[in-house]
Design brief:
The complex is a heterodimer of chains A (about 260) and B (about 240).
Chain A: H1 2-29, H2 40-49, H3 51-85, H4 87-102, H5 105-116, H6 120-144, H7 148-156, H8 161-198, H9 204-213, H10 217-245
Chain B: E1 7-16, E2 19-29, E3 34-39, H1 45-52, E4 60-65, E5 75-78, H2 90-94, H3 96-101, H4 107-116, H5 132-146, E6 150-154, H6 162-175, E7 180-184, H7 188-194, E8 197-202, E9 207-211, H8 225-239
Helix pairs in contact in B: 4-5, 5-6, 7-8
The chains are: A mainly alpha (about 260), B alpha/beta (about 240).
Bound molecules: adenosine-5'-triphosphate and magnesium ion.
Amino acid sequence: MTGKATARSMRLLVTLAGLVALWGALARWGHVPPYMLPGPDAVARALWTQRAQLAPAALTTLEETVLGLVLGIGAGGALAIGMAVCAPLRRWVMPMVLLSQAVPVFALAPLLVLWFGFGMASKVVMAVLVIFFPVTSALGDGLRQTEPGWMDLARTMGATRWRVLVHVRLPAALPSFASGVRMATAIAPIGAVVGEWVGASSGLGFLMQTANTRFQTDLMFAALAVLAVMTVLLWWGVDRLLARALYWLPRHADVD
Amino acid sequence: MRAPPAIHLEGVGLDFGAAPLFRNLDLCIGAGTMTVLLGASGVGKTSLLRMLGGLVAPDYGRVVAGDGLPLAGRVAWMGQQDLLLPWATAMDNVMLGARLRGDRLDRDRAGRLLDCVGLSSHAAALPATLSGGMRQRVALARVLYEDRPVVLMDEPFSALDSVTRARMQDLAGRMLAGRTVVLITHDPLEACRLADHMLLMAGHPARLDGIAVPAGAVPRAVDDAGVLAAQSVLLRMMMQ
Ligand SMILES: Nc1ncnc2c1ncn2[C@@H]1O[C@H](COP(=O)(O)OP(=O)(O)OP(=O)(O)O)[C@@H](O)[C@H]1O
Ligand SMILES: [Mg+2]
């Protein structure tokens, strides 16, 4: 197990090192001006020298992302449960949920900034909007596919609807919900960053945007790298948490 | 446990789509007896059992208990799959009914029942860590925990190997004695070991025909001469 994990991290390191080497070679010998593609060394330097800018920006984005995740998962989950127990709610609200997906959330970003201000709120709302649908539909699917045999059993046992929901349907829907939450974790930072891009006074998206207009491409790449690492770490943490909550799922041979 | 009731089918009929599955079925299932239901695949055994359990309403006629009281709340169900909740321990699975009704959980009794089915050392195990036979025994303990006078079982042991199955038949025969039990099976040996009454379901729409059962009290021994003779007669009958 640990041997496998080590092998996996080794492979990841080798792949990353190879990509960075390729990037370095392209920047150095590819006749690309540094304001278009700075080399890894320049980006590393920017990471270090601009740390006083990058760290608070990352913290802002992380805060917005986590808040958006918590609220979006809470609201999406609650709506999915509501629609599972109350058929009229499903008939009335489901078309609205689908319709909301037809509007590109990114086009709404300027409006959200107008409504919720330049502060954190508009970015949190943005993150909530992008993760709402995956969360709701994942949990909704899970709740709709309860093993019919369990429902038969519960009926003969004289179960109440709520107790069946709490003790059977919700736990059974958890694996499906978990995949929605994983997806949400991966895309929530995008929502926050796009919000910052459109109008903000701090955050990685804001930093990238200002760096972009000033041709500080190395800083822009540095911010991008911080965002990538942050997203991966967040995803990894959430994945661990979900794996613990789903202790009972059969472990398939480690996918490597 | 309250006294087990007889169950009467009165002119019962059920349709799926246009084709009637069965029509005008009249039947009396004796109080406190083990009735085994046989029949070809797709003839409607499971549908009939679900009707007895109140899981589908008959399109015609009615199902009533011999004592005139409603059957709802007096039935325990055991399906073809063990239907254990994979996130709950064996003990919690046994007590599922109490949890779903909001009753007090009786851990002592659940423990004793797990002991009866030989799983006292696996009370804290998750279903995924148990063998198929063990899981089916947990499901049997769950039925016993419900302590209902009527027990309906749909091919409960069909997924087990023949030795485990024979053991489960002994166990179920002993533990369910005195209840009104209806058991579906495709296995003639199982039918001959466990049946106080045997019914063969056949035809479209299906009818129910009684079949003679071997002498002796249930569960009959696997090597009982009467059981073995009846088994081969039954197999021949089912092959026609
Ligand atoms: N919910 C349903 N909707 C439509 N048709 C159904 C439904 N349930 C069962 N049927 C049909 O009713 C018939 C009888 O099904 P049933 O499950 O009762 O058979 P069975 O005797 O239990 O078969 P088996 O031995 O294979 O379990 C089948 O032809 C099946 O296609
Ligand atoms: Mg069946």
